[in-house]
Amino acid sequence: MQGSCPLEDVIATEALDQRTAHVPDRAAEARAMDGLKQALAGSPRSVLQKLAEVGLELCGAQTAGVSLLEEADGRRFFRWYAVAGEWDRLLWTTLPREFSPCGTVLDRQEALLMVDPERYFGRLGQVQERVSELLLVPFEAGGQMVGTVWVVAHDTAHRFDSEDCRIVTELTRFAAVAYERLQSFKADDVRELSRMHLVPEPGTRKKV
User: What is the dihedral of CA 108, 110, 112, 117, to 10 degrees?
Assistant: First the structure.
């Protein structure tokens, strides 16, 4: 369901550089990146979950996640392979490729900041917690854009800046490695993971 305003009205990426950047916690960032490097020895899914948790912490976000592009029965959609924070119950949710924030980011192949995105992506309004700001960074594997890492501020108390964009961009490097490892999974393995977590069929969403 499309909202009531044009897409360009919700995109405010230029604000990232206009805002005063917060002072990064280099020690915390170094520990987090070391933890991610160690996590690479484990399962790809655990790496994605770990980086969502890192994004949540380092960016001061209220939700963070990783969406990967999939295709089934001729339909393309994003699946939330990792979620931390307010929306953690929505792990494995799917959204259509053709009308979602992640789809827009893959189309433009660049980081985007969206402010009150429900104004355009009306479907997000079905989630109980509102989205004040949404920062998404795409990543590629094998020369193709395959997913996004994203962080959410649910209220106006926190606004993202260029430091947040730098951190999320750094996290996409780990996401790309995990994605390539996930490709060794058979499609049946992914479907089984979905069933274990009561995932809706592609193109649908959990009830919230």
Answer: 30
